[in-house]
Amino acid sequence: MPIPKVQIVSRIFSPEPAAASFRLSALRDGLARAGAQVRVITADAPGEENTDPSITRVRVIRDKNGYVRGYVPYLSFDLQAFVHILTQPAPDIYVVEPPPTTGFFSRIAAGIRRRPYVWYAADIWSDAAASTGAPDLIVTVLRQVEKFVIRGAAGVIAVSDDVADRVRQLGGRYVDVAFNGVNTDLFNTEVQKLTPAELVAHGVKEPFFVYAGNASEWHGAEVFARGFERFWQSNPHAQLVFFGRVAVQEIEDIAIRLSDQARDRGIKCEPIVILDNLPPKLAARWQRTAVSALASVKPGAGYDFAYATKVLSALACGTPVIYSGVGLARGDIADSGLGRAVDYAPEAVADAFAHMVDHGEDYSEQRLEGWVRANRSIKRTGTLASAAVLAALERAREQ
């Protein structure tokens, strides 16, 4: 049997930190373990030099926060990906990551090359647009594009059972589920905690809470800044650390306001500390050292199906999580005792901060890590996703 050749088409890929990067890297590893050859078409990674010959990176337009997000940035990738699909040696099958515009151009190009493709459904974009109050015309057009992509796919990989159900309703065939996961080789309880000297170098002391990763509008991470502002009034020696892209101005405004209050009270440490993106190994050390990690999905932002992978990375490091809002992670945290799942409200978040300061050490590190290894390891994700891709290829060959 010939070696399967697979090409991943995605505007985002490792080392750019995002859930899509993690699952697609895991898919590539899973396909490699299964004996497939994998190539990738993706966007250039800011500040990173591409040394992997199997990855083709194209220069794209990014928004002011550095994301490839919005119709113009999407098209800046989609059109180049379209050309590359048509001109590069054709694989046996493509795997295409959202947005639907990428799927639209990829379906047309794959059809021209007479090759099947698999759609990796992390969410239902038309549902998200509808829930955020987008104009009816935009929702209608987006839904038709999404149906066009889903119905043309030889298979669909969904990141949850709920997403899989919606894919089927939209006409998807052969839908498999591969939950998002985390790399337990990088994130685990063997990770060395930050030393007091390392913390002080960043103006931080224990106890502190950490929000690891991007804080965009749909995350609603400002609820933690609001809740911390309440909590800090009676706990002025605690700190809140954000690292990653903070795209919400309110977080910075609250940080400045609390900084002024701390100075008036003679407190030297900044209550809220905002750091730049950190490499995964260092991010793991921050999460390992925190009294609790934070994650949220804002209600009504159109991402109710989302599963914040920052939840998994923290738990794998043995750190309990405060989760605010909606999303699939909320049930896991509440049902399995992995931290505190609270409403999207500053008062509820403030109470959760107080709980963790008093009881954070009551959570067993080994139990938290063990839950991730048993349920959400990225290796398992990659194995399931790669099996779905190869099964789609086999079906296509039989037709």
Detailed description of the structure:
By secondary structure, this protein is of the alpha/beta class. It contains 15 helices and 13 strands. The chain has helices spanning 19-33, 71-87, 100-113, 125-131, 136-152, 161-169, 196-201, 222-232, 249-264, 280-289, 309-316, 328-336, 346-359, 365-375, 378-398, and strands at 5-9, 37-43, 55-58, 93-96, 117-121, 155-158, 175-177, 208-212, 239-243, 272-275, 292-297, 321-325, 339-342. A seven-stranded parallel sheet has the order 3-2-1-4-5-6-7, sandwiched between helices. Helix 4 (125-131) runs antiparallel to helix 5. The mean pLDDT is 94.
Features:
alpha/beta, 15 helices, 399 residues, 6-stranded parallel sheet
Strands, helices and their partners?
Layout: E1 5-9, H1 19-33, E2 37-43, E3 55-58, H2 71-87, E4 93-96, H3 100-113, E5 117-121, H4 125-131, H5 136-152, E6 155-158, H6 161-169, E7 175-177, H7 196-201, E8 208-212, H8 222-232, E9 239-243, H9 249-264, E10 272-275, H10 280-289, E11 292-297, H11 309-316, E12 321-325, H12 328-336, E13 339-342, H13 346-359, H14 365-375, H15 378-398
Parallel strand pairs: 1-2, 1-4, 2-3, 4-5, 5-6, 6-7, 8-9, 8-11, 9-10, 11-12, 12-13
Would you list the SSEs in sequence order as H and E?
EHEEHEHEHHEHEHEHEHEHEHEHEHHH
Overall average pLDDT: 94
The tally of helices reads 15
Q: How many beta-strand segments?
A: 13
Largest sheet: 7 strands, parallel
What is the terminal separation in angstroms? 17 Å
Spatial shape: globular
Sequence of strands across the biggest β-sheet: 3-2-1-4-5-6-7
Relative helix content:
40-55%
User: Beta-strand percentage?
Assistant: 15-25%
Structural class: alpha/beta
